[in-house]
Design a protein that fits this description.
Rossmann fold; 3-stranded antiparallel β-sheet; alpha/beta; 22 helices; single chain; 515 residues
Length: 515
């Protein structure tokens, strides 16, 4: 193992991911719904991603918000090279990627870096050493400006008690293997299955591990290696993080997982009264984690938590707009929560979804509609929060429709399509209207790139282009995980997929500013 990696997996690069909760639009909306003044996204702002990996989050912010100054930091040079390469292909000059450890960042001169309006760090805190955790918090204390927001996600002890010793076993099995981390993963999981089959009493004492191991097996081997095979893997309690952030002059304001801010759908009914008895916020959140069996938190902090008047809060809420994401709605509106699947009341959720079908709509416009004019504002805001959490709607980014935002987002989406055409794996596009990104099919990515390059919207021509790009990238058309050898059959499969893209997906992508 390399001496510079501090026990972190570096023999393989991390997967390229995007988490919607890290976008400035989402963070500002969460702050507003929680009753706190958000940073003004219509003005220039600065954004930092600590532990940015391949940098897609930072790249999406830079493309959607050309008026922002964006920074990504990672200690792995392979990650920084990848991020810089995609930024160069997209011609994004407002994003900077720095190869540096958290300790090195804390030692930089104050003038070497700006202060930030947003600092995010996703999936890092629980996977680094205690010393590096302290450095991470120190950076936030040094670099987050007054009024700025910090996002920190991490594994919580309450959801991982049975997994802690099993993870230690996985780490030992990896250390005993001569294979690369991701290649060692199948053998590690197979050995664990053999332990269960052999009658190990540990698994009988922790029956919930069966479901978790089933989910783990569905993940990319690279993700599993980075999740479980590092030297450091430390689920922590909320109190540990909150106390450290208090020392950094940052106060907890709520969760970026919006449903978790609504107790009625976040904890069992009997737990809510116990939480109400808590005299401290730290105890209240700890009880929440016990009540929900919480395994992962997405915490939001603010540097300074001044009061905001009701009049100002309502005025800012009225300016908030939401747009449809095109997610299909079945017979019932269902939303995943900590307690399972929630079914929304049709008299509230159906009218809301009908309103956004024709385009973005503001809270002020919704409040003035006959359906909601007489309903309590809190009821409306909770419904909006749950629809956002469920992926049915998304907050609109102020200025996301500007020519500059559309142009820079188009450049990044074309660079993504080119990367995928050459064999890459970036299954998403950025959507400037909402200031975020969308997960899409690889073939859809190629279609988006072709259309942005001026390709005619003709099915047969697009099929020919996409098949050519798949061949160029060393890929083949798949059916049930197997390569399709017959060219005619391959063409039929791609044609069916692209026909759905043209008919159903393009209107959504246009509505969100992708095209």
């Amino acid at each position: 193992m390399a001496s510079w990696d501090d026990g972190y997996v570096t023999d393989i690069v991390y997967t390229s991911n995007f988490y919607r909760e890290c976008s400035p639009t989402w963070l500002a909306t969460a702050s507003l719904l929680l009753g706190h003044r958000p940073p003004d996204l219509s003005k220039p702002f600065r954004y930092a991603d600590l532990g940015c990996a391949h940098g897609f989050t930072a790249l999406s912010v830079a493309a959607n918000c050309p008026h922002a100054e964006v920074w990504g930091f990672d200690f792995n040079p392979a990650h920084i090279e990848s991020a810089r390469d995609l930024a160069a292909k997209a011609g994004l000059t407002n994003v900077h990627f720095v190869e540096a450890s958290f300790e090195q960042i804390t030692e930089m001169q104050q003038s070497a870096l700006p202060d930030f309006d947003f600092i995010v760090t996703h999936g890092v805190l629980s996977w680094i050493s205690p010393a590096n955790r302290a450095n991470l918090i120190k950076i936030i204390g040094q670099r987050l400006r007054p009024g700025g927001m910090a996002y920190i996600s991490y594994n919580v002890t309450t959801g991982w008690t049975g997994m802690v010793p099993l993870r230690a076993l996985m780490r030992q099995l990896a250390a005993a293997s001569s294979e690369r981390s991701d290649l060692a993963v199948p053998g590690i999981l197979d050995f664990i299955d053999r332990m269960k089959a052999a009658g190990s009493l540990f698994f009988q004492a922790h029956p919930a591990l069966e479901a978790r191991l089933t989910e783990i097996r569905k993940q990319d081997a690279r993700y599993i290696a980075h999740e479980f095979l590092n030297a450091d893997w430390h689920p922590v309690m909320f109190a540990d993080v909150a106390n450290a952030m208090t020392d950094a002059k940052c106060g907890f304001i709520g969760s970026a997982t919006l449903s978790e801010n609504i107790d009625a759908v976040a904890v069992p009914a009997g737990v809510a009264p116990l939480m109400a008895e808590a005299r401290s916020q730290v105890l209240r959140e700890t009880l929440r984690d016990f009540g929900a069996g919480q395994g992962f938190r997405r915490d939001l902090y603010r540097r300074g938590v001044p009061p905001m008047s009701m009049a100002e809060h309502h005025a800012l809420l009225d300016q908030l707009s939401i747009a449809s994401t095109g997610l299909p709605v079945g017979e019932q509106v269902t939303i995943a929560t900590s307690l399972g699947s929630l079914t929304g009341r049709p008299e509230i959720y159906r009218p809301l979804l009908a309103m956004v079908e024709s385009g973005p709509i503001s809270i002020a416009q919704i409040r003035q509609s006959p359906t909601f004019a007489t309903r309590p504002l809190l009821e409306l805001l909770q419904a909006v929060a749950l629809l956002i959490a469920g992926g049915y709607v998304h907050p609109v980014l102020a200025g996301g429709d500007s020519p500059a935002a559309r142009e820079s987002a188009a450049r990044l989406n074309k660079a993504i399509a080119l990367t995928n055409a050459l064999g890459g794996d970036v299954p998403r596009v950025v959507a400037p209207r909402i200031g975020s990104a969308l997960n899409i099919d690889l073939l859809e990515s190629l279609v988006v790139g072709a259309l942005l390059d001026g390709h005619p919207e003709d099915l047969e021509s697009l099929v020919t282009t996409v098949l050519s790009q798949l061949t160029r990238g060393g890929r083949s058309v798949q059916r049930d995980g197997q390569a399709v050898v017959d060219p005619k059959e391959a063409r039929v499969i791609v044609s069916n997929i692209l026909q759905n893209t043209l008919q159903n997906r393009l209107p959504v992508l246009r509505g969100l500013g992708v095209l």
